[in-house]
Amino acid sequence: xxxxxxxxxxxxxxxxxxxxxxxxxxxxxxxxxxxxxxxxxxxxxxxxxxxxxxxxxxxxxxxxxxxxxxxxxxxxxxxxxxxxxxxxxxxxxxxxxxxxxxxxxxxxxxxxxxxxxxxxxxxxxxxxxxxxxxxxxxxxxxxxxxxxxxxxxxxxxxxxxxxxxxxxxxxxxxxxxxxxxxxxxxxxxxxxxxxxxxxxx
Amino acid sequence: xxxxxxxxxxxxxxxxxxxxxxxxxxxxxxxxxxxxxxxxxxxxxxxxxxxxxxxxxxxxxxxxxxxxxxxxxxxxxxxxxxxxxxxxxxxxxxxxxxxxxxxxxxxxxxxxxxxxxxxxxxxxxxxxxxxxxxxxxxxxxxxxxxxxxxxxxxxxxxxxxxxxxxxxxxxxxxxxxxxxxxxxxxxxxxxxxxxxxxxxxxxxxxxxxxxxxxxxxxxxxxxxxxxxxxxxxxxxxxxxxxxxxxxxxxxxxxxxxxxxxxxxxxxxxxxxxxxxxx
Lengths: 201, 278
Known about the structure:
The structure holds two protein chains of two kinds.
Chain A: H1 17-20, H2 27-32, H3 36-50, H4 57-70, H5 74-86, H6 91-97, H7 103-106, H8 110-124, H9 131-141, H10 143-165, H11 172-181, H12 194-200
Helix pairs in contact in A: 4-5, 4-8, 4-10, 5-11, 8-9, 8-10, 9-10
Chain B: H1 2-11, E1 17-21, H2 48-61, E2 65-69, H3 79-89, E3 91-96, H4 103-110, E4 117-122, H5 128-135, H6 139-152, E5 156-163, H7 170-182, E6 190-194, H8 200-203, E7 219-222, E8 225-228, E9 235-236, E10 239-240, E11 245-247, H9 254-265
Parallel strand pairs in B: 1-2, 1-7, 2-3, 3-4, 4-5, 5-6
Antiparallel strand pairs in B: 7-8, 8-11, 9-10
Helix pairs in contact in B: 1-9, 2-3
């Protein structure tokens, strides 16, 4: 049950009817459709930011799953765990990206480790990125990949907060995909508020 | 894109009337109201200064006519002033249930006689029993008093009759026409339109189901967004309808007008329903 009503084919706004023409497009499109003119430009952007391009689908999914796990977004982590498997990520790699097993054991490629360090720095940190992480990532990924992955992480963080804030439900297809991978859906988390953060510190 | 909107308005691809949902609350609770309006409905009023601002933007785009509806627009104390300002920009029609024209409100409404404003009052039958079944007790008597009073004062009055198309009673219709002629309302100003199965009408199993393709390409704006046609900003079970929603953005008006033009481009030609059948 989402916090806001997700649009369906019966309620889809006029500009977005094509997205609903072939059935339920999922809760993300369903809630974005509340603001048709925003959805209209956001979906192509998300497609470009998260889809495969000059950066491979595998690397994009590493960035997306890792970012989503770092931001504790159940919807995006679970959804992209299944998508990541479709792009060739192994069960061990996915578990590592989700924070369930050691990341160093799962990823040995220097470029992919640099990618993960870059993603962690962006999605977990505040302020400037550690210069050593930045220089290593630039050296191993190159300028254009660094730019694109940074946009991917930023777009993913936006979607993480959208999905978590609006409590988007993981689809049955994703749950089935996780079962096939031998991975469980992430457990629900207690809401984090400013005061509870203080309590934690 | 502005030029394309202007051309579409000039050629009739888009109709050149902009509708404003001034508010959603109403002193009546009609059984077929597609906005589910009632006295307890939150006002959700478009600010008057925004209405005027949008009207100026509309005129720049090529719109030449305005419609104001609700809810009951004349509940709003500033409505007559808004209508006068709108009329200075373009020909204006305001939809009213006609039951509030007494005392100070009547005195203010009479001021509309000097402006390009038509007051379109809803009246469904020439008999109180039939009319008031849908529109509430004493509705007929109030309307039957208001219309001749307004026309006598020189206010341009139109009458809108909502019917179930398959239940048109010709004898009743003839009596209604005789009545409005006697009240000073011309035949051309009597609009007979089908009940649309939206909002409360749909809940009650009333009205005709109409698809988007059949609605004329008129832009309507409310506090919740911009819609395809004046039936777009309806309410069903307390929730705003979205199937005719174009954009949540209403200002600048160019944004929803562009969206409407995009949607119109994908619509089959010549499919509009003749909603007005005088």
